[in-house]
Amino acid sequence: MIDAIFDEFLRNGTDAVEEAVRKAAADEIMPRFRQLAADDILEKNGPHDLVTVADRAAEARLTESLTALLPGSVVVGEEAVHADPAVYDAIRGDAPVWIVDPVDGTRQFVRGEPGFCTLVALARGGEVYASWTYAPALDEMAVAFRGRGATLNGAPLHAGSPAPGAVLEVATSHPDYTTPEQKKALLGLNAEGVHARPCGSAGLEYLDVARGALDGVAFSWEYAWDHAAGLLLVHEAGGADLTVAGEPFRITGGNALPFTAARDAATARRVRDLLGGR
Fold this sequence. Notes:
The protein has helices at residues 2-12, 15-29, 53-69, 78-83, 106-110, 180-186, 202-210, 224-236, 265-274, and strands at residues 41-43, 50-52, 74-77, 97-104, 117-124, 127-135, 140-145, 149-152, 155-156, 168-172, 194-198, 216-219, 240-243, 259-262. By secondary structure, the chain is α+β, with helices and mostly antiparallel strands. It folds into 2 domains: 2-156, Fructose-1,6-Bisphosphatase, subunit A, domain 1 (Fructose-1,6-Bisphosphatase, Chain A, domain 1), CATH 3.30.540.10; 168-272, 3-Layer(aba) Sandwich (D-Maltodextrin-Binding Protein, domain 2), CATH 3.40.190. The strands form 3 sheets. A 7-stranded mixed sheet has the order 3-4-5-6-7-8-9, sandwiched between helices. The chain has a 5-stranded mixed sheet with strand order 11-10-12-14-13, sandwiched between helices. Strands 1-2 form a two-stranded antiparallel ribbon. α2 (15-29) packs antiparallel against α3 (53-69).
């Protein structure tokens, strides 16, 4: 029964998801943008891992609205997993799962910068079937459906390929979030013909890859809420991803890290090799 419900939803029910994402941002995030009080901001795992009242309120709103849209579905949200890590196991289950990052780029949001977004992906059995990347302060909504392409504000997205001989622009894991071993791997990007910089919002970096404004990303962590939406967006725009083991990234975990997503397969292989790929 769930197969038929899921398939029907993908065919005819997804417009309501975009509405739900926009509504959560309009009601819970944007009224707090540049209006946060000191006690609206908390540390989760140290000064570089922040959460705000906007994150929690938006995730609660999306949890309610998304599960109502698709009976039998569950939510794996960043803040719910922080409260109960067992919630993450649903990604490996059979039920349709909404993977939610209510405010991706919380540090930018806290600083009053517009470079943050809400990420929602719909997955089942470890495969991502649809995704929504919404940057409310930039008025950008990117949507992707497996096998059906990707759009930004309704216009098709095409990642294209870097110009021959051009310096590759690559966004990487921020040093605050990397181990010494991961830092060593990422140093491989300090190569001729490559310009690497720390990433901002992961979701917006993926969007830039999908529209050809960034050549690739190289990340060293695998929380699905940061990657599921963006990886589908890049793939449906014609891009590719690889772990250092030469395998596609799995949202269920157990990946060899770091991994890359890039505008095309050749660029993904080049970045993977620079990371010490095998």
